[in-house]
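Translate sequence into structure tokens.
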Amino acid sequence: MLLSSCGLSPTIWSKCPQLLGMFVLGLGPRSQYGFGPMVLKGCLLWGDRVIIPPTLQDKILEVLHEGHPGIVRMKALARSYVWWPGLDSTIESWVATCKPCQETRLAPPKPSP
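Result follows.
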């Protein structure tokens, strides 16, 4: 992802690793896993996941949702490659508004009398 495609200036992006480490995540400059946010080849990373800005989140959700994999699979795919604050709840909302997913999802079992 190019910095220019995110709608933020390089000056703002240069501050993001420190801000994400201390403010958004509340974990300080490094996480419990020993790494913090960094910029590599124009991508803002948290470990091996790309941090997706709000302007690109819908496009990422569209790609993750191709084939209507369901919430569990979609979350697993997302957690492997991307991150943003509230990722899980965003995916839950996305799938909840998908008509084909709601029509084909399994209904919870009915309790026996």
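Note: The longest helix spans residues 10-24.
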